[in-house]
Amino acid sequence: MTKIKTLYSNDNSLDEHKQMMQSVFKPPLFKAIFLSVLMPLVVVLAIFPFRELFTTTDIVMLQLLWVTWVAVRSNRRVAALTTLVSVACTDWFYVVPYFTFHIENIEYVVTFVVMLIVGLVISHLAGELNTKVRDVQEHASNSRLLYELAKKLNELDSLDEQKQLFIAAMTAHLKVKCDWHVSQTNNVMYLNEQQPELGGIAFAKPLTSEQQALADTACSLLYQVHEKTLLRQQSAAIAVQAELERSKNTLLRSLSHDLRTPLATIMGASSMLADEEIELSRDVVKEQASNIFEQSKILNQHFDKVMELSKVNKLGENITWQKLNVSSLISEAKARRQQQLSDFKLTINAAQNSACYGDETLLEIACANMLENAARYGDGTADMQFIERANEYQLVLINSINRNNETSQDEGVGLGSIICDVVAKCHQGQFELTLNEQTGQAKAQLIWSKQHG
């Protein structure tokens, strides 16, 4: 349970708050005099020419109507004063002897006492009703604030944005200027006393008891959202770390396989040539030397891939987003693998003016590796399509699989695919490679986000 630490004291009780609320809704002095003094006189004078048609009890009932109206529309004090003035006016104008406060008939005394009591009771009940209505409206307004605040805070991922929204909402609702403070100052509510580094909210002046209760609840809500945001960020960091570990294991597996095969061939051929007890013909020596040379080239290509992967990781630390022409991007990617793609036929399905946003160097490297894999394991032809969606870009490469180049299940995924995956993640995207055995086609998709474009 979150504890809120309040660094100021406030002695206002709930009854004092109700009195304050009544004073806030108290009408101006002129309006109070008009309702409680002038209007009862106006009512009495309006009826005065017809006083022979009404009994004193009728006049009292008519006066009580006005007292009830004032009690509902104003507060209990004005209604009580209206009751007293109404009793006095009725006695002055309608009780014999007229124009005096002298009462000869005891019957009128009972009538006036009952009128006074009924008027005061109505004033009290109406005042209580108004107070409760205002309290209900205030509680409904506070509940609406907390609901909207919780909804909007959970939509934000930045702690600073959450604090700014919280300060703006509390200032607008409480009509009290407030600010965020980390250091200890007066009139501050800390989110959690065990974590003072989180800071708290400071108010320009002391709050009433109900305002303080609302601020406590709002601070508790902000703390919970803070905790939820931190947990979400930690979960994302753990997911990233797990993905890095998976990528690392995949990389090591690929390197292990890709390096083991050519090294085994080189070691076997060189050991044969170095064995003095084995007599080899000139053709066999030439063949083994050729094997060593070819496998050395393969090793060199693997080391080039490792260096390229290292370059991608380095560039990924500082992405340079710029507008790129898709056709030019693919052309530059082909130029990077000019030797491997000399006989490769590529069909590009993209308009000449198609453009995307991203890091030029990283996207060229990823595209070059996609083309290289298609040329190495395909039949020499491929179709590349550029797709632009609402929130992402896609480069889709489809090629037929050359059955003669099928590899064993123990073979790694290749550094080219890993490089494409790293480039995609640097652009908040992903790389997908799908092999369809039924159609005999391979589909590579480089997907990245448009949010920085």
3D architecture notes:
The chain is α+β, with helices and mostly antiparallel strands and 453 residues long. It contains eleven helices and eleven strands. It has helices at 14-24, 29-47, 56-73, 76-94, 106-154, 159-174, 209-274, 282-315, 326-336, 360-377, 415-426; strands at residues 5-6, 178-181, 188-190, 200-203, 322-325, 345-349, 355-358, 378-388, 392-401, 430-436, 441-449. Strands 6-8-9-11-10 form a five-stranded mixed β-sheet. It has a four-stranded antiparallel β-sheet with strand order 1-3-4-2, covered by helices on one side. Strand 10 and strand 11 (441-449) form a beta hairpin. Helix 8 runs parallel beside helix 11 and helix 9 packs across helix 10 (360-377). The longest helix has 66 residues, at 209-274. It is rod-shaped. The protein starts with a strand and ends with a strand.
Distance between the termini: 43 Å
Given the structure, what is the number of helices? Answer: 11
By helix and strand content, what is the structural category?
A: alpha+beta
| Main β sheet profile | 5 strands, mixed
Helix content: 55-70%
Low-confidence stretches are 1-25, 406-413
Globally, the shape reads rod-shaped
Radius of gyration, rounded?
44 Å
Strand content: 5-15%
Q: How confident overall, as mean pLDDT?
A: 78
List the strand order in the largest sheet: 6-8-9-11-10
Secondary structure blueprint with pairings:
Layout: E1 5-6, H1 14-24, H2 29-47, H3 56-73, H4 76-94, H5 106-154, H6 159-174, E2 178-181, E3 188-190, E4 200-203, H7 209-274, H8 282-315, E5 322-325, H9 326-336, E6 345-349, E7 355-358, H10 360-377, E8 378-388, E9 392-401, H11 415-426, E10 430-436, E11 441-449
Helix pairs in contact: 2-3, 2-4, 3-4, 3-5, 4-5, 5-6, 5-7, 6-7, 7-8, 8-11, 9-10, 10-11
